[in-house]
Amino acid sequence: xxxxxxxxxxxxxxxxxxxxxxxxxxxxxxxxxxxxxxxxxxxxxxxxxxxxxxxxxxxxxxxxxxxxxxxxxxxxxxxxxxxxxxxxxxxxxxxxxxxxxxxxxxxxxxxxxxxxxxxxxxxxxxx
Length: 127
Known about the structure:
Layout: H1 2-25, H2 33-58, H3 64-90, H4 97-100, H5 103-124
Helix pairs in contact: 1-2, 2-3, 3-5
């Protein structure tokens, strides 16, 4: 499980840097300021959760069950939240806005629940 968390965290971190650079350089000429800011929000949240996955994978004090739940919540949450933001900000999902739009808050909720699972795991630990 730790390996899977570390690989996912590293992948999300690496792609966040690539997408951030892409947004700052290539998309700067294509998107307006609001769209670019929205795109950057997706990049930021992807990077925050890349670091979160790396922490969870590296910290031995978290139960294996919690790590597994956190992995799936955060993995799916990043794909839904940041992925939908990338599509909406760039207009790539223009014909699917009614479908893609609701996915963003679902992704955000999954990210929040992932953090909540970690909080519960910390409360359950004995001092």
